[in-house]
Amino acid sequence: MDLYSNLKQGERGAWVSIISYVVLSTVKFIAGVAGSSEALKADALNNTTDVIASVAVLIGLRISQKPPDDNHRYGHLRAETIASLIASFIMAAVGLEVLTDAIGSIYSEEAQTPSPFTAFVALASGIVMYGVYRYNLRLSKKIGSSALRAAALDNRSDALVSLGAAAGIGGAIFGFPVIDTITALIIALLILLAAASIFKEAVYTLTDGFDEEEGEALAHLATSVPGVIRLKDFKGRMHGNMIFIDLTVTVDPSLDVVESHRITEQIERRLQKVKPLSTVLVHIEPEFQKKP
């Protein structure tokens, strides 16, 4: 297991996303203004939020690579989660701005028909972002990075948004200009939903939330180790991609220190086999039979 090396490799995916988003958001915004497409401009603003989110992931990956120090005994792995939380607020602000502009355009006196070339720009953007999604997904599987996988899924969402914008622009070109504005509304809602999802996940992690089913599976794995009589306590929490597990098991009180320690090592090995990026702390207690 080389967690910090994986984080370093993950920076490549973040940079690919940043460069792609900067180029595409610039091209789409210019094309949206020139071609009178609200949907394409909204899609461009959506990509600006993704630039911010990708930069936040990059900064988080950089800070997370700092080793533990006197003030951060568990390391700096939660820096990425904090950056994601900040990015969710920025995304929500931009989403509200896009929503406000789209609603305002509905009540405008004239609804302009977008230029056909804006549909091609949106379509090309969707194809490019799908390529970025495939790259980041493949890299996330290679290095086992859940953060990069989340970024890849965000890339896929942006590809779908761009393809949706192309469809909306196409409808407007064929005589229904309001479809372009409605598509902008949908894009705004997608931005807000993405922001809410990132916010929820970040808060869940920062408040030491841990999946109940995963905890039960790991607890069952610990109790299956020969010599373990009972599981008294189990706690799990996430620090970036790292899982910290603390558990207490009881054993036969007649066991000596060496035998008890061997049981803790077996528990650690079994849990780390299914969760390589984990730190397991096992506390052993004697199991005394209660007198009747």
Automatic annotation (TrEMBL):
Residues of the Cation efflux protein cytoplasmic domain: 211-287
CC annotations in GO: membrane
A GO molecular-function descriptor: monoatomic cation transmembrane transporter activity
Topology of this chain in the membrane: Multi-pass membrane protein
Cell compartment(s), UniProt: Membrane
Annotated InterPro entries: Cation_efflux (IPR002524), Cation_efflux_CTD (IPR027470), Cation_efflux_CTD_sf (IPR036837), Cation_efflux_TM (IPR058533), Cation_efflux_TMD_sf (IPR027469), CDF_Transporter (IPR050291)
Membrane-crossing residue ranges in chain numbering: 12-32, 44-61, 82-107, 119-137, 158-176, 182-199
Residue span, Cation efflux protein transmembrane domain: 15-206
Chain segments annotated as coiled-coil in the UniProt record: none
Keywords of the record: Membrane, Transmembrane, Transmembrane helix, Transport
Pfam families recorded: Cation_efflux, ZT_dimer
NCBIfam families listed in its UniProt record: CDF
PANTHER family listed in its UniProt record: MANGANESE EFFLUX SYSTEM PROTEIN MNES, MITOCHONDRIAL METAL TRANSPORTER 1-RELATED
Family affiliation: Belongs to the cation diffusion facilitator (CDF) transporter (TC 2.A.4) family.
Name assigned to this protein: Transporter
Species name: Bhargavaea cecembensis
Organism classification: Bacteria, Bacillati, Bacillota, Bacilli, Bacillales
